[in-house]
Specification:
The complex is a heterodimer of chains A (146) and B (50).
Chain A lengths: L4 H25 L11 H25 L7 H35 L8 H29 L2
Helix pairs in contact in A: 1-2, 1-4, 3-4
Chain B lengths: L2 H8 L3 H8 L7 H11 L3 H4 L4
Classes of the chains: A mainly alpha (146), B mainly alpha (50).
Chain lengths: 146, 50
């Protein structure tokens, strides 16, 4: 399939992100509440450490099998394109939340999204989705060509 | 010459050379000139524009 180290690394990162953050967010929203309980600081640190450890292990395994390659111009171009899409999506989401806050303040609406718990989890969801878009865009352009 | 050898001489990855051959990537002018220098042929003999 002629996959470079970079592509395999992206698939691994995408898998780890979806697995760990997906598991956490599924647990947070599984009771269909937009106001899930805020996790403790320790739980968040443990989640992030797990992500970093898993990715490091996978990168090490891939580095053993494939010769580590420096990024060339094609890698950098695809990365730039992916950041553009990822940033665009994240910007829209942040604007959405900002509007929600204004509406809540102005109309005293008390939307669940603007509670601290809701805000935290939706911000986390949007960051994770933007990372998924970044990885997915890179994989798409590696396969399709640019 | 293998793709890896060409890639090493030009300073890109083997997958980039593969993508160029499959018309999935248009290299920069710098890389294009490096490739033509490796083959010691004019640029227009190595690359064509359709």
């Amino acid at each position: 399939m002629n996959m470079s180290y970079k592509e395999k690394s992206l698939i691994a990162s995408l898998g780890v992100t979806l697995l760990l953050f997906g598991w956490y967010l599924y647990g947070a929203f599984s009771n269909l509440s937009l106001n899930p309980e805020l996790p403790g600081f320790i739980e968040i640190i443990i989640l992030i450490v797990w992500v970093v450890v898993l990715e490091s292990i996978i990168q090490s395994v891939l580095a053993i099998k494939d010769k580590l390659q420096l990024e060339d111009e094609r890698d950098k171009l695809i990365e730039k394109i992916s950041y553009r899409y990822s940033y665009g999506f994240l910007s829209v989401c942040i604007w959405f939340l900002m509007v929600q806050i204004l509406l809540d303040t102005r109309f005293d609406n008390h939307l669940m999204l603007t509670t601290p718990y809701g805000m935290f989890h939706f911000l986390l969801l949007f960051f994770v989705l933007s990372e998924v878009i970044r990885f997915g865009t890179q994989l798409y352009y590696y396969r399709k060509g640019v | 010459m293998s793709q890896q050898t060409l890639a090493d001489k030009v300073g890109v990855t083997r997958q980039t050379i593969f993508a160029i051959e499959k018309d999935k990537y248009s290299p920069s002018l710098e890389v294009a000139f490096k490739i033509s220098n490796v083959f010691k042929t004019p640029l227009e003999d190595v690359f064509t524009y359709d």
